[in-house]
Amino acid sequence: MTATFGTTSTTKTPDLGPAVELVSKEEGHRQPLAPEFVSAEDFSPLEVAYDFGRVRREDIEAGPKNIWRYKKLLPVPSNVEEIPNTEPGATRLIRADRLAKELGLKRVWVKDDTGNPTHSFKDRVVAVALAAAREFGFEVLACPSTGNLANATAAAAARAGWRSVVLIPKTLERAKILTTAVYDGDLIAVDGNYDDVNRLATELAGEHPKWAFVNVNVRPYYSEGSKTLAYEVAEQLGWRIPPQIVVPIASGSQLTKVDKGFRELGQLGLVDASPYKVFGAQATGCSPVSAAFRAGQDVVQPVKPDTIARSLAIGNPADGPYVLDIVNRTGGAIEDVTDEEVVEGIRLLARTEGIFTETAGGVTVATAKKLVETGKLDPDAETVLLITGDGLKTLDAVENHIGPKATVPPSAAAVNEALGY
Predict the structure, then answer these.
(1) Residue 145 pLDDT > 50, yes or no?
(2) Residue 154 pLDDT class (50, 70, 90 cuts)
(3) pLDDT tens string 39-85
(4) Is the pLDDT of residue 3 over 50?
(5) Distances from the Cα of 213 to the Cαs of 48, 178, 218, 220, in angstroms?
(6) Three-state DSSP class for 409?
(7) CA 176 to chain centre
(8) How confident is the model at residue 13 (pLDDT cuts 50, 70, 90)?
(9) What is the mean pLDDT of residues 351-361?
(10) 220, 236, 258, 331: which has the fewest C-beta neighbours closer than 10 Å?
(11) pTM score above 0.90
(12) Distance, CA of 225 to CA of 182 (rounded, Å)
């Protein structure tokens, strides 16, 4: 197995801000910054290591109203905000009292990432990946995707003036296909599931040295974008870490980087390094990490996805073992919910807080409910739920469950009768 895919030639030293090297997650082997994602020493994933120097709250607060306010904590150029990009981040953190009451929790906050440019958290990770890819001399932005990443990659490439190549399973939700195709990049539907698409992307990354597959050959940089969710939550809470947070699991990368973000804030003295618990949420039809957690295992057995939550339908999650480590270390838990519960979670969040989430958000809400019912979430502890995508992308999940209360002729009497007056 080779550890390098799509290596480019560049005459300049990449400006990746505080990033200093790559480190293997298993044995800590160190190597220079490069477009590589697997260690040649121990064949484990690589992640970015930093020399942050001094970072102050006031410097962050004076920054732009997007993720680049945290550029001193990310592997991006020092002038990243000056280069055309989608400027994601700075999304709402909503105090959700009505939802809290329904769930049986004292205080709930909803991190509503539907407000990003393409309406999901993937805009964050793609923006960081593009910034790094530019420094490494790539010319094409590419990805395999279950939908949200396809939207974000195509949009970011269009904004930057790059070509995009996006690979998706042909069974992807129609809305996500259209909201990728509109950017006029190269959208390729593949006859297979996401794991098939991902394997194909890895093969293509080796054949095309100028293609930056955001979640393959530049994955270490891409994944760091998820840390900005943790940074924003902490800053929006008045520079403190929430005692409990519920995170949806697809590849598992988001959960691991939220944890990394919280730890970095504590290490830098930007927040008090208080304890917190991380909880994971999966759909039962694709719940290999939940199954491993329930069985007390430290390895994740691949499954064939069968769920309406297609954005989480990764049967062989790359970061599954690291999710298990974090959840166990922090004292959290992982649960899964049925498709019926997912729909109920979508409707519950919409009914109580006016937020229409896609199926992944339904998984998060429904899992939070189940965690409370099983005594795993502390009902008195402040809890944050990550809502990572917009419900307009997965209308098919709810179309047979909702609609007009009645159809009436155009008269006040008919309306009153339908309403029971």
Answers:
(1) yes
(2) very high
(3) 999 999 999 999 999 999 999 999 999 999 999 999 999 999 999 99
(4) no
(5) 17, 21, 6, 11
(6) coil
(7) 16
(8) confident
(9) 98
(10) 331
(11) yes
(12) 24
Determine the pLDDT at residue 6: 42
With a cut of 50, say whether residue 4 has pLDDT above it: no
Same domain, 112 and 177: no
For residues 243 and 311, give the distance between their C-alpha atoms in angstroms, rounded to a whole number: 27
pLDDT at 261 over 60: yes
> 382-403 burial, b for 16+ CB within 10 Å, e for fewer?
bbbbbbbbbbebbeebbeeeee
- CATH number (domain holding residue 133): 3.40.50.1100
| DSSP state for residue 44 in the 8-state scheme | P
- Which alpha helices (H) appear in 208-248, and where do they start and end? 219-224, 227-236
**CB-CB contact of 124 with 225 (8 Å):** yes
Calpha distance 168→218 (Å, rounded): 19
Give the C-alpha separation, 4 to 15, whole Å: 20
φ, ψ (nearest 5 deg) of residue 162? -100, 160
Is the same domain home to 109 and 131?
no
- Are 153 and 299 members of one domain? no
Name which of 205, 230, 229 is nearest 218 in CA terms: 205
Q: To 5 degrees, how large is the angle CA 219–CA 318–CA 174? A: 80
Q: In this structure, are strands 334-337 and 140-144 parallel, antiparallel, or unpaired?
A: unpaired
Q: Which two tokens stand for residue 166?
A: 């996006």
